[in-house]
Amino acid sequence: MDAAREAHAREAFRQAVVNTLERRLFYIPSFKIYRGVAGLYDYGPPGCAVKSNVLAFWRQHFVLEENMLEVDCPCVTPEVVLKASGHVDKFTDLMVKDEKTGTCYRADHLIKDFCKEKLERDPNITAEKAAEFRHVMAVLDDLSAEELGAKIKEYGITAPDTKNPLSPPYPFNLMFQTSIGPSGLTPGYMRPETAQGIFVNFKDLYYYNGNKLPFAAAQIGQAFRNEISPRQGLLRVREFTLAEIEHFVDPEDKSHPKFSEVSNLEFLMFPREDQVSGQSARRIRIGEAVTEGIVNNETLGYFIGRVYLFLTHLGIDRERLRFRQHLANEMAHYAADCWDAEIECSYGWIECVGIADRSAYDLHAHTDKSGVPLVAAEKFAEPIEVEKLVITPVKKELGLAFKGNQKMVVEALEAMGEKEAMEMKATLESKGEVEFQVCTLGKDVTITKSMVSILKEKKKEHQRVFTPSVIEPSFGIGRIIYCLYEHSFYTRASRGGDEQLNVFGFPPLVAPIKCTVFPLVQNQQYEEVARRIARSLTAAGITYKIDITGTSIGKRYARTDELGVPLAITVDSTTSVTLRDRDSKQQIRINVDEVASVVKEVTDGLSTWADMQWKYPAHSSTSAED
After folding, report:
1. Span 518-527, mean pLDDT?
2. What is the C-alpha R_g of the chain?
3. DSSP character string of 14-59
4. What is the pLDDT of residue 557?
5. Which residues contact 573 (CB under 8 A, 6 or more apart)?
6. Which of 215, 266, 361, 578 could staple 334 via S-S, CB 3.0–4.6 A?
């Protein structure tokens, strides 16, 4: 079957990438000498360098370009904060247990794996059954615990390792719980995202920004999710780096002054209508997407465009990058619109960046829980007259009637909307009393005319006070880096054709080491020139690796190609050197004193390799290269 062959080729490619990454210490399982812990990884020297370069470019592309306010908040978060945000009650996945061993699995993952296996490897599958499996995979996120349990039973799915029966699915909260301080009286959690630290600091950040909107705050930091059954390497882990932006904007004006800078960008988009009707992603100009209402507003569209530029500059293949709109069943009830930047790799399409218009949900939630108003104000040039609803509960009367429940009744009265309040006023005037539902009490109470005053007053207002909306691009840095590894990896035959050599074709922007310095042979004069070049590279702020071993030059090139080093300097005389390009393997000859500035120009993106080939003479090597 074609599908089975494709799946096998994907797995073989992935294995080649992962083996190279682990062998060259880009990343390895954490605590390896103790057999490791699933979902935890250590970045080695080249992995740290790639990650550092990606984050430096993120800061430059977003924080610097948009004049964002960067913050750094604690990983340990008090329970009250995450209770307000909804994480304590709702941040769950559905889990099943092996009934004999107690091993846990994610219910939706077991069903997804079963369906994929059947589609890829069952030669006798009917068209009807294949369509059913595809439909189940498409709606997995929407299935309840009972529905997932029914599917597991229907398909006869058992524990993957033991084939034992499984328990019914039940919710498992993904946050790591802890307690703050020795008494254990202050519960807390390791944060599952960095965003809440920004929301709770909104009031101070708004003041710092001169009480002006719009503005954006940004944060890079660790987040923690106690995944039920982590897998897929760096794609699903228990501790990871997030880079998040919270762009605060007036809900009545979501235009963006720089939208015209991205409006002509065209890339693969996958609107929800196309997903529902079974179509594929298509190229759409982001300007058209906003004009036609496919994307909700200009600010959201602007960030989608900026994310596209960020990912493609890093080296993500634009043909394997799409922006998929959330279906109605995926969207939070408060969200205005949500898009995911998905990158295709050997595991399929992987969500790497979420770009969401979260409306004013988060600031409202923290305002309600903390009692601190997280609001902004628009000052009017001239005062305007408005009609305001004024609800005044008579606390003495309410206290006599409801005693200990008085506070909850007062809060419920004050929280009434205009329509409900005016209906209550009319009923009280005609009947003298009204039945009123108090949600926090879970019952109706009788309100009499003497318990509350409801009227409309005309007032002059000098400003409009409102809760800002927030547009949130959230970047999973580990996922982006893993996809970048796959998109950059290729093999090529050695010169003799007897082996395949691995190459990471990183753009200089993210390459862990920018160049290598090789004396052609072990020779004191050449080694002194190599050290002189190394000092000038250090002064220019260029990362390099110097290799004075006696290994053949071809093997040294192959070793650094496997690390993704874009340029190699070979010292073969005391006055000039050769500079080799990793991908074309072509070389040019340059004076010793110029080589550091040429490397800097190319690795900083100011000039291309082609520019340098035009400027400097070509060098034709007679030594065996690869």
Report:
1. 88
2. 30
3. HHHHHHHHHHTTSEEETTGGGT--TT-EEE-HHHHHHHHHHHHHHI
4. 93
5. none
6. 361
- In one letter, which amino acid is 355? I
Pick the more confident residue, 451 or 2. 451
Q: What is the mean pLDDT of the chain?
A: 92
Written as six digits, the tokens of 545 are: 């690796």
242 contacts 194 by C-beta, under 8 angstroms: yes
The pLDDT of 99-119, averaged and rounded, is 91
- What is the C-alpha to C-alpha distance for residues 165 and 97, in angstroms, rounded to an integer? 9
- pLDDT band of 166, cuts 50, 70, 90: very high
Which whole number is the average pLDDT over 582-592?
A: 95
Place of tokens 């993957």: 160
Q: Read off the pLDDT of each residue in 287-303 and give the average, rounded to a whole number.
A: 97
Distance, in Å, from the CA atom of 565 to the CA atom of 496, rounded to the nearest integer, reads 22
Cα separations (Å) of 372 from 199, 209, 214, 364? 12, 19, 21, 10
- ∠ CA 601-607-611, nearest 5°, is 125
Give the DSSP letter of residue 574.
S
Across 447-468, b (16+ Cβ under 10 Å) vs e yields: bebebbebeeeeeeeeeeeebb
Task: Give me the pLDDT at residue 122, please.
Answer: 84
The yes-or-no verdict on residue 378 having pLDDT over 60 is yes
Give the 3-state secondary structure of residue 350.
strand
- What is d(CA 353, CA 133) in angstroms, rounded to the nearest whole number? 27
Distances in Å between the Cα of 239 and the Cα atoms of 19, 22, 178, 228 are: 22, 19, 15, 13
CA distance 577 to 590: 6
Cα–Cα distance measured from residue 343 to residue 146, given in angstroms and rounded to the nearest whole number: 32
